Amino acid sequence: ESIKTVLTSPENRILIKRMLIKCADISNPCRPMEQCIEWAGRISEEYFAQTDEEKRQGLPVVMPVFDRNTCSIPKSQISFIDYFITDMFDAWDAFADLPNLMQHLDNNFKYWKGLDERKLRSLRPPPE
């Protein structure tokens, strides 16, 4: 009933649509783990290439944390989740009840924290 009340306002419907688009754009940490890892690697590589090109051209480096020689992918993912994802998706979960999505988020956060605690900087732990 409260959702119907929220949806009766045109302004609220527009806000909800904008939030859905934003959430879809940054939702990688809420995917199943293997997809999350794969896309974290692709995104990181895109940022590494940008940093490489900025250095090559003598331009200011926009994202110095994405220097491929020093970057910790787990730390970057943990920061991204802490800064952007957790509060936004907690709000969506309260609004729409998204237990699977929230479980993926929790699993992925724990995965990145585990790598970081082992002082690993890569997408995956070394083979055992």
UniProtKB/TrEMBL annotation:
This is PDE8A phosphodiesterase. Keywords: Hydrolase, Metal-binding. InterPro entries: PDEase_catalytic_dom, PDEase_catalytic_dom_sf. One of its GO terms (biological process) is signal transduction. PROSITE patterns: PDEASE_I_2. The keyword Metal-binding applies. The lineage of its organism: Eukaryota, Metazoa, Chordata, Craniata, Vertebrata. The gene is Pde8a_0. It comes from Rhynochetos jubatus (kagu). GO terms for molecular function: 3',5'-cyclic-nucleotide phosphodiesterase activity; metal ion binding. It comes from the Eukaryota. Residues 1-119 form the PDEase domain.
